[in-house]
């Protein structure tokens, strides 16, 4: 009998439904704000629908969030993180907005007329910002350096300063100079402006340092919600400032329900991110500001800022002088100066960070060059680098008419060491022999591993006699060394010497001559040093040491 799969209910709703809800909420918000119905009952019905719709969105945010809140953390991390609280905080944002709408409906039904600004709704509406800002600040971000975070902070301040300048020019100055507005009304308006700007700054600061694709989508939805809400606020403030009525009446902004719909969509996307089988840090490790789109946008940042402030000055010059003109001019001057200072600081910081990255890159390149030129076991030069270095030294000897000697060294009975003691001891022998030989050589000399148990030493400026003295010193030091103390293991080596120009005139001939001399030392009994045949076919053999 086959197992019957029972469908598991999902806390998610389709994106197509969310798009439909968004369009419907925008229409409902516009109708609630414009009040096209003459009958009082029609307006109250719209208000009731708005409250029910906001409560429905709050349930969408909370649905499935409590189960994730009880989890120990995102899959793959094993620890509790603030990311699990984000859907709940977004749900609280939506729920508080629903409570504010309920306060508006209750006051309207009680008084049977549109309430005068400010109302209980506007006071309660301020309560949504702490939940929203807390949700944004809890969005996970990678551990960045202080320089990177400071640069991101300056980038956010540039955008924020531009928005503040535009906001003050268009909304704040007329609001502060409007004689019909009381001190309480102006204070409430300033609080709303400040809360909106703080929310925008938090979104910018988190967005610029986020690397997770899913989190970027959450931020995009929250940013769009903020934009719609700000546009609605601008519409309301414009209505308040240009209304000819003696008493200013206003209710919820036309974009409030649309913003709440996007917040619910962001909560759903965040729950999907939290339910993935990978930590939140998974994703392309590229900061949003370092992507190609933002890189292109930054190249146009200064021209865009210049254009914005030029348009503000032009608009100020062509409009008739009024009570707003001096204050608006001060706003432009202060905003432009602030942005200029931040731009200069940002450029200085970027230059400092670029120089730091260049230094780190040079150090990493030097490390890579060292690794590419070194033998991974012994740490001395590898075969390829030895060939290159010998070519350079032979060319230099030819140019300067100086000698250059090559020692070809082979560890005696190395195969027997591997067979008897194992390859680990054989590797230890290679490393300790290389270390002992390197301690004898001069700084200008070169030691490298030719292959297996064979080493080559390049001695620039050394003739046959000097090279023979060095070779004998190496041979005796190696034979006196105890490689593995617990096994009382000692090794010996055989060496061959070839010198430019007495022995050979090219790199290959030098290596072959030194190799043949080393084999001759092997044939003579090992643990010996032999000189390669000179061009006059003379052969010199050293004292044989231990034989």
Biggest β-sheet: count, sense, barrel?
A: 5 strands, mixed
Count of individual beta strands: 7
Radius of gyration: 40 Å
H/E element order: HHHHHHHHHHHHHHEHHEEHEEEHE
Low-confidence parts, pLDDT < 50 over ≥5 residues? Answer: 1-11, 72-80, 277-286, 537-547
Strand content: 5-15%
- Class per helix and strand makeup: alpha+beta
Helical run tally: 18
> Could you report the average pLDDT, rounded to the nearest whole number?
80
Bulk shape:
elongated
**Beginning-to-end CA distance, first to last residue:** 85 Å
Spatial sequence of strands, sheet with the most strands: 2-3-1-6-7
Helical proportion? 55-70%
Question: Descriptors for this entry?
Answer:
about 550 residues, alpha+beta, Alpha-Beta Plaits, five-stranded mixed sheet, two-stranded antiparallel sheet, disordered N terminus, GGDEF_dom, GGDEF domain-containing protein, Rev_trsase/Diguanyl_cyclase, Diguanylate_Cyclase, transmembrane
